[in-house]
Amino acid sequence: MEAYLDNSATTQIDVQVLERMERVYREDFGNPSSRHKKGLEAERYVKIAREEISATLKCNPEEILFTSGGTESNNTALLGVAYANCRRGMHIVTTAFEHASVYEPLCFLEQQGFRITYLKPDLDGSVSAEAVKNALCPDTILVSVMAVNNEVGAVMDFEAIGREVKAFNPEIVYHVDAIQAYGKLRIYPKRQNIDLLSVSAHKLHGPKGCGFLFIREKTKIKPLLYGGGQQKGMRSGTENVPGIAGMGLAAKLASEQLLLNAEWLYELKEHFANELETVEGSVIHLVDEEDGTKCPQKLRTERLRRLAPHIMSVGFFGVRAEVLLHALEEKGIYVSSGSACSSNHPAISGTLKAIDANQDLLDATVRFSFCKDTTKEELSYTAEVLRQLLPLLRRFRRK
Amino acid sequence: MYKAFLVKYGEIGLKGSNRHIFENALRDRVQEKLAPLGSYKVVREQGRIFVECPEGYDYEDTVEALGQVFGVSGFCPVEVIETTEWDTVVQAVCEFVEKTYEKKNFTFKVAAKRADKHYPIESPVICAKLGEALLERFPELSVDVHSPQEVITVEIRNRAYVYSVALLGPGGMPVGTAGKAMLLLSGGIDSPVAGYMISKRGVQIDATYFHAPPYTSERAKEKVVDLARIISRYTGPIRLHVVNFTDIQLAIYEKCPHEELTIIMRRYMMRIAEHFAKENDCLGLITGESIGQVASQTMQSLLTTNAVCELPVFRPLIGMDKVEIVEIAKKIGSFETSILPFEDCCTIFVAKHPVTKPILSAIEKSETLLSEVIEELVKQAIETTETIEVRA
Asked: Which are the contacts of B120, defined by CB distance < 8 A and separation ≥ 6?
């Protein structure tokens, strides 16, 4: 049996999405900037995708900027806003557990003289609107918050944060990194005071190398890439038409099935949590107690539902995450230790430290992330494999 | 563009009546190395190897390839002149100097070889006349017949050849002239260098790698395959034996004193590598050990691991410092891959304070603790070994 439980790293592409992309690659391969019919055909795909995506966010099609993925969306948002607004102020507020594609551009800006405030999350893994409000200064130009933490699945109250930010100063640009959230939670940027929203296509059964940034009209922002002036000069470079076409459909499908999918994902979570009851020495972060005490069932459901529908971060006493990951891999089960994007760094998860996870679990936590196609059988199989493997792995550890 | 290369070999020239064996091997290795790049004509003639390049060949690729053939001590890009008609030769020699040297302010002499003894001009006269012509064309040049900075060599055969600068080859002996040996290859810096150094003496290489899933990852294995591929640019194709060592390692971990884990593990690695060595007609084992580098490479440890082998163990790095090894690793291109951070099976269960001065009899006694299981485990490890043919 095979169980791909690393859907927060990437997802398998949807067949319909692939079909649409193939048609673009094979037949309608023109450059949207070309004046001839082939160009027009290609442009149509881009236009349709723009409409499909804007419909999911209830925004204007013109407010969608196509990018090469989540990293570019985040970089464009942060650097673009910083450079366009630096005369007004040099202060930026963010959280202490952002993804590297937010954290690193902010480090770069810090070197350029910007002042960054990193807010530590509360024990529930989220940053409160109150904390953000207290961090705002007269010279704050940008607030950047991750909607769903990619390591533990904690959900930020980004709507409340948006309200506080705009109440303090409507000129502050509010950016939400929704790479783990889009397609899982309803997001309506206009209603929720969000100016910029980053999304990546391959997290929602779309293609890799493609993403978008919602940019609310009249937001002061500068481009990252200069050149042929595509996308109204905001992002030069020939549009990735097949990717964009695929992403449009992927976004549409994810949005249409959002509630249904979310319900299924929570059901899967509940099922897996039940299975984990009998996996000795396991701790679901932000659900179970960090000393290993299991959460009573009723409270558990409530806690599970407070987290994002697709992410479960589980610690296992007495094993190293890396070893467990490879042992599961041998059984056809694919998970990640920490966040897959940064798994190459042996650094211990900052998020786990922030939520006060048990010291012994910092290097012993794996992330299971589900998608709509995940089955209960796969999760039962995974739990069964864990029951077999853990006692073996626990026999051998570094002395 | 130069039309040919003259390949020089140092040490082979000193061989006696079996010299042709080495020369033929070198010719074959050069031919094999260049084959993927095009149809080069490689011929052995009068104490040297001559490589004629095909139309439109890639100079950089060819130079790189020749620089990776053991046995090549140096090689000169050669200008080939289709006719030996004197004015054409003069013209061609001037053009050769023009394109070969950016600055023309060196001292030189012309050396002439007249293989075609019917050629109307004698060698000393060729030298003098060509020297004159070059001085006239490039006034900044000056002649120094005793210790010139550059020697411009002109050979008159059925065609004429001009060459001067020699590019450095790796030296050594052509692979295949000295039998085969089994390299214990890890993901580290040392073992690829050790394999390179032994192969440089003409030895064909097989390799054995020990992996320990799930404690070592698939990527760690991939890295070792990459390393084998890098050194195979020099050694030629390598048969890589990938041994699953997990169960043996766990058995040692459970039954033997913890501080002896590494040394006992190494003894089993040597035993298994030797098994594959013998099975593949290898005449020795190769390791990247260097005295005192780590606990398992002290004199006492080397004695203890050496004791399980019947075949000789070649340790070309034995007297080298890490910095010297790193220098070679960088030169041969394995360093960047070696330092990728994947755990290898030597480090996963390593004791905080491993024995540094093991006593052979004590280690042998500890190993008896394994006697119930080890034979079967070794047999299984050998049976489940995966063999990968690696070529550059």
From this structure: none
3 state DSSP class of B286: strand
Radius of gyration of chain B (CA): 27
Fold of B4-168: VC0802-like (3.30.2130)
Please give the Cα distance from A138 to A134 (Å, whole number): 12
Distance from CA of A363 to the nearest CA of B (A): 14
pTM: 0.86
Please give the Cα distance from A283 to B89 (Å, whole number).
84
Per-residue pLDDT tens, chain A, 399 aa: give them.
Answer: 999 999 999 999 999 999 999 999 999 999 999 999 999 999 999 999 999 999 999 999 999 999 999 999 999 999 999 999 999 999 999 998 899 999 999 999 999 999 999 998 888 889 999 999 999 999 999 999 999 998 899 999 999 999 999 999 999 999 999 999 999 999 999 999 999 999 999 999 999 999 999 999 999 999 999 999 999 999 999 999 999 999 999 999 999 999 999 999 999 999 999 999 999 999 999 999 999 999 998 999 999 999 999 999 999 999 989 899 999 999 999 999 864 444 444 445 678 887 889 999 988 999 999 999 999 999 999 999 999 999 999 987 766
CB pair distance less than 8 Å for B215 and A346: no
With an 8 Å Cβ cutoff, is A291 touching chain B? no
Q: Which residues of B touch A322 (CB under 8 A)?
A: 217, 343
Q: Looking at the annotation, which residues of A are catalytic?
A: 341
Residue B349 and residue A346: Cβ atoms within 8 Å?
no
CA distance B324 to chain A (A): 29
Complex ipTM: 0.79
Q: B107: which strand partners?
A: B142
| CATH number belonging to the domain at B180-390, selected among 3.20.20.10, 3.40.50.620, 3.90.79.20, 3.40.50.2300 | 3.40.50.620
| A395 near B CB under 8 A | yes
Question: Phi/psi zone of residue A338: left (φ > 0), alpha (ψ -120 to 50 degrees), beta?
Answer: left
Q: Which residue in chain A has the smallest CA separation from B255?
A: A396
Domains of chain A in start order, with CATH, are: 15-256 (3.40.640.10), 258-394 (3.90.1150.10)
Closest chain A residue by Cα to residue B218: A326
Chain A nearest CA to B230, separation (Å)? 23
